[in-house]
Amino acid sequence: MHTTTVRSPRAFRPARKSFIRRNLPYLLIAPSVVMLLALIAYPLLFALRSSFYFWNLQIGPEPLQFVGFENYVQAFNAFDFRAALTNTLILSILGTTLEFTFGLAIALILLKALPGMNVVRALLILPTTIAPIVVGFLFRYLYDPGGGLLSWVLQSLWLPVPAEGILGSPSTALAAILFVDIWQWTPFFAIVLYASLLAVPDEILEAARLDRASAWTILMRIKLPLIKRTAIIIVMLRFMQIFNTFDTVLVLTRGGPGTSTRTLGYSLYEQGLVNFNIGIVSAMTWITVLIVNVIVALYVFFAFRNEEW
Amino acid sequence: MTIDIGNMSRRDLLKSASVAALVAGAGSLAIPRRGAAQDANTVRVLSVEDPFFFSMKALVPEYEKETGIKVELESLSYDALQSRLVSAFVAKTSDADVIVVDQMWLGQYLDNGWIISLNDFIAKDSEFDLSDFIPEVLYSSNMWRGQIGTLPVAAYAQGVMYRKDVFDELAIEAPPTKTSEDWTWTKYVDTLKSMEGKSFGGKPLFPTVVCGSQPSPIVHMFTQVSASHGANWFKSFPADPWDFSPQLTSPAWVKSVEVYRQLYKLSPPEAINYVWFDAGTRFAKGDIGMFYWWTPYFYLIKNSGYMTGKKSDVMDKYATAALPKAEGVPQTVSLGGWSLGIPSSSERQEAGYAFIKWATSKTTQKKMALWPDLNYQFSDFARVSLYEDEEVKALYPYLDVQYAMMKQGNGKVTRPPVPGYTAIESVLGLTLNQLLTGSEEPKTGLERANSLFESILKGNLMIPYQKASYADTLDGAKALIAKR
């Protein structure tokens, strides 16, 4: 097919205009590209470079010497690394799984035309709008063994509460942090999954019901497959968010008792913003980036292996 | 219009990217720097939100009226302040003209050139009287390698607080207000044990309360016990030559952990998670017999909760006492607190010094003490004369005890402000926290911590120490102060 373009005589005159015209799409997306490079690529590459230097702001303002992989070795051998990695994986995997499950259950209930659902939907979004630090302080009081609501509820139900308090015992502290995350972020899953479920065509559901498919079959064979992509994406996002948890840990337990609630995010905070060891924290950042990316890549590979994009 | 995307070469793409980058760069240049845009009649003060901040803030309008200088006073939490300051220093931006500096940051800030030495300002200022400051405070919090880097705005020691009514009812002898050979940690623990299992006012009574949260709270409280027992962190510091080989396996450390463990056993179990103010507010609740802590708690426990201004149940029922000591070891008291310094990036260093001089002056500190809000909330004086002021003493009747503790203070021994301190504090805090709840022998835990200390200090190029040492002794500091 032949296309004829009519150009005004002026278009040929200044070379500068011609350059701008030819490159307009690139110029339009350039600010975004520059911002992306500045905000994502540059810090990561800067961290990569710093991870090979001895650079501790408490010792000196500039990097002192090239140390090769020494920072990575120190990060792996740190007294808290294994505990932090284990706790982080427990929190991320359990947190995402439970939040998804409860969120889906709530979303299915929201689909029912029950009275008061509008109010429930509005209230549901509230926990996600509160800053994690504030949530941390709120739960610090709720977990207080000297009259905190949650401690009282557990005791009223004859459930054992450790003498040191829920946050003071190594056997319950991590579960307490997990509970806070579930409380805050389950509504996020519920709202997103509810929106996705609303998009499932009624005809398909009606046809399934006519075929006497059970509610469980409809959920597993129709609803979940149809919202699969959304579900996979939000699970992935939440997994990455929980993997970096540090604020609630900082407020509730500061990683204790012992190392029972220490997470990689908290260790990163401590090395970076308390110890100011830029070399070690850069190495830890890259270790975290690699671990998260490997897990997410495996997850995406298995989740989408039969999908066409 | 035709857009010829397909023919765009790599060179063209690079050109476009360069133009975009240039535009972005020019845009950032057009943004005025905060320092450059600063009003000449303004002084920016960045503070931590500790108790002293509120009374200082209340007096700022008076300073503005007297001098015509506008004060932009901003407060942050401890962690946020340190992060903000270091970020500004590294980025070489002018973020403030006066900053609040913790004693643990002083060496780092001066060595890195992030704050200026106040030596020249003080030398040129004939009105300034350095001799009124308690030398132990200046030495612990403000001097590094012979330089005065900051001046104290709030100085803390540690001391004992106990319930007079509980002691009377249980017929327990009140602890002394002066350091004495009879008032030892053994006696302290025995006194607490005599309250074990008792009730008071129909409620169960806990003999004491400690801080168990890692890393800083537990280290702050534990190191008073270890300093009393003569435990040193390093082979040689602050005396020269500096040798940072860790000494955590010494008998003094083991004994100190044993004492602290006993104290935890006599505390509410949830104290394992207690930070600084948790211990104080717990005492103010009324179910604790006696505890020791930073001297600001001498007045903070008058409040129900932390700095609420509401009177606590124990407000008129407590008294203060001297810290116990270890048998046969000279007493060393932990000193801490907050000081004011001038960032080297400040363009208004003279104005900054004028503000520091005002905030740390006897007149202002007395006015801060007389500020009535929050149940009178400031007695953290670093000046000797204020401990002798009758008007102030009438409001804060414990000042003699506090001053006696200050005079036995040595912040450089209790928590050595060496470069990279926070990393080793993390290890010690974690180890202590584990030792409180676990069944591990103190010696085993301390050996592990010692080995981690060594690894961190070697990683930080502190072992062997390669820079010049400095004989940073209290006597040396006193001589320097006298010379000025």
What can you see in these coordinates?
- The complex is a heterodimer of chains A (309) and B (484).
- Chain A is mostly helical and 309 residues long.
- Helices cover 69% and strands 1% of the residues of chain A.
- In chain A, strands 1-2 form a two-stranded antiparallel sheet.
- In chain A, helix 3 (81-111) packs antiparallel against helix 11 and helix 11 (228-243) packs antiparallel against helix 14.
- In chain A, 33% of the residues are buried.
- The model of chain A has no long low-confidence stretch (mean pLDDT 89).
- Chain B is α+β, with helices and mostly antiparallel strands and 484 residues long.
- Helices cover 45% and strands 13% of the residues of chain B.
- Chain B contains 21 helices and 14 strands.
- Chain B has helices spanning 10-30, 51-67, 78-90, 106-111, 119-124, 135-142, 164-169, 185-193, 216-228, 251-265, 276-285, 297-300, 349-359, 362-370, 384-387, 390-395, 399-407, 411-414, 421-437, 442-459, 474-483, and strands at 42-48, 70-76, 98-102, 143-144, 147-148, 151-156, 158-163, 199-200, 203-204, 234-236, 243-246, 290-294, 318-321, 336-341.
- In chain B, strands 2-1-3-14-6 form a five-stranded mixed β-sheet, sandwiched between helices.
- In chain B, helix 9 (216-228) crosses helix 19 (421-437).
- Chain B is globular and about 65 Å long.
- The termini of chain B are far apart.
